[in-house]
TrEMBL record:
Organism of derivation: Stentor coeruleus
GO CC annotations, alphabetized: cytoplasm; nucleus
GO biological process: cytosolic ribosome assembly
Descriptive protein name: SBDS family rRNA metabolism protein
Organism superkingdom: Eukaryota
């Protein structure tokens, strides 16, 4: 590993605002059956993973790799070579920091889990409606239902990804479905022939026929993605145009969940779905369309999201930013291609 002198030097280089080897957070990674650990500052690990903290020296309490931080046992070189090959120590540390599990005390873990659960409930409330009535389900009801079904919260997985998995897994049990989108699809007769099976998935509200067709209607987000991808894959960009008029269409009233039994709020289904009224929340993002916030922390956290970063990249290329609904259905590979590009 490193010499004692090297270790002391590393300690002396710690950030002046941090006290070395106090309030230690251990990041653990098991690879090829061998456990490796690094010592970090707990409040810095998440910042580094979110891309907020760029200087890894501000994250690490020591640049050593351990098999047991608490006992001060360094990892053996033979084990490092077995697990990571000939990779240098700094690459191994980055791999552990990126892929490993952050160990925190019980109180911190409970607080983090509670915060993630709240984020998941908010995302589900935003994306879903009561499947029977089409009405929005209050955040408090969703939160209580998630606690009742004992969802497994993963500390190292984004809340949005977990929310989408929960929606898919429990939507029938809870009586939820993704809120439909209102779209406008303009297409030529040539595109109509190529897209007809997908066009049939749109619940038509109006259809104008002239030289081109103009269809306004409701569609499930997954079907929106299918049309969006088909236009691109079949090179129909000059023959068809897909626009989002309303990202989330809901009925009037308050929805319910099956899981809550007699405590459910019963609502008569509405015949015609109406868009949720727009509410100006005061805090906005000047880059992302319709990004408005009532809470200063939500506003601040928005600028860390891949949606915002993706739109910044688009603006730097002279391309219009996209809404959250369109971003949420884009292939991850396409998002990463732009985010990882060298264009600022």
């Amino acid at each position: 590993m490193v010499s004692d002198i090297s270790f002391i030097i590393n300690m002396l280089r710690q950030p002046v605002t941090q006290v070395p080897l106090t309030n230690v957070a251990v990041v653990k990674l098991k690879k090829n059956g061998i456990k490796f650990e690094i010592a970090c500052y707990p409040n810095k690990v998440s910042n580094w993973r979110d891309g907020i903290e760029k200087d890894i020296n501000e994250v690490l309490q020591s640049k050593d790799i351990f098999s047991n931080v608490q006992k001060g046992i360094y990892a053996k070189q033979a084990d490092l070579h077995k697990a990571f090959g000939k990779a240098p120590d700094h690459e191994i540390i980055e791999a552990i920091l990126k892929e490993g599990e952050l160990q925190v005390n019980e109180l911190e873990r409970k607080s983090q889990q509670d915060n993630i659960l709240k984020d998941i409930a908010s995302i589900i409330a935003e994306k879903c409606v009561d499947a029977q009535s089409g009405c929005p389900v209050p955040y408090t009801i969703i939160m209580r239902a998630l606690e009742e079904i004992h969802v497994n919260i993963k500390m190292n997985q984004p809340a949005k990804k977990q929310a989408l998995i929960i929606i898919k897994t429990y939507k029938d049990k809870l009586g939820l479905e993704r809120a439909k989108m209102r779209i406008r699809l303009t297409y030529t007769p040539l595109a109509k022939e190529a897209l007809q099976s997908l066009i049939d998935q749109v619940i038509s509200e109006s259809l104008k026929e002239d030289q081109n067709f103009v269809l306004v209607g409701l569609i499930h987000p997954e079907n929106y993605r299918s049309i969006f991808n088909a236009i691109k894959d079949k090179h129909l960009e000059n023959e068809a145009n897909l626009e989002v008029l309303n990202q989330r269409v809901v009925a009037e009233g308050e929805g319910k969940l099956k899981q809550l039994g007699n405590e459910e709020v019963k609502v008569e289904p509405q015949v015609v779905a109406k868009p949720a009224p727009a509410v100006k929340r005061g805090l906005v993002c000047n880059t992302c369309p319709d990004a408005e916030f009532s809470d200063v922390n939500d506003h601040r956290n928005h600028f860390k999201t891949n949606w915002h970063k993706y739109n910044i990249k688009r603006k730097s290329r002279g391309v219009e930013p996209i809404g959250e609904a369109e971003f949420s259905i884009m292939p991850e590979s396409e998002i990463n291609d732009l985010l990882n590009s060298k264009v600022v």
